[in-house]
Design a protein that fits this description.
This protein is mainly alpha-helical. It has one domain: Orthogonal Bundle (Arc Repressor Mutant, subunit A).
């Protein structure tokens, strides 16, 4: 019975993020930033986005979706993008000053959420936390394998 309950709770959490969070933008300086845009923005700021094909594979989306998201972020004044003249599939993507401020605000928000998650985990023993981490890693690996 407890196994079914845990699986059901996980499914509820996934559904919450799929159907609710997707619709809620993070508003920064009057600009609506959606989760897909924020994820891409974080990759850009961390210096990991140079190839749309690789980004698409990492996020489990199409190259077209990456291109569209980059275009929206460019239109919103969050980033600038240029094709690398020497490498057809490579991009030069940088955050604008507004994009850097938005990045900082998103990181602060994320830190607050992570703090809340950590407070929940602090109610569990170290062994429980190890089991939870192992479980979440397996779920993550399973979802990404599909």
């Amino acid at each position: 019975m407890e196994r079914e309950n845990a699986a059901e709770k996980l499914y509820e959490i996934i559904n919450y993020f799929l159907f609710n969070e997707k619709k809620k933008p993070f508003v920064f300086e009057g600009v609506n930033l959606y989760p897909s845009e924020i994820h891409l923005m974080l990759e850009i700021s961390d210096g990991e986005l140079t190839n749309a094909t690789k980004a698409a594979a990492q996020f489990g989306i199409t190259k077209g979706a990456v291109s569209q998201t980059l275009k929206r972020l460019e239109q919103k004044g969050i980033l600038t993008k240029d094709k690398d003249p020497y490498h057809k599939n490579e991009l030069s993507v940088t955050l604008t000053p507004m994009g850097k401020r938005a990045y900082g605000a998103v990181r602060e928000l994320r830190a607050g959420i992570m703090g809340e998650f950590q407070r929940v985990l602090d109610d569990f023993t170290a062994d429980d936390q190890t089991a939870i981490t192992r479980f979440l890693k397996r779920i993550n690996d399973t979802l990404r394998a599909e």
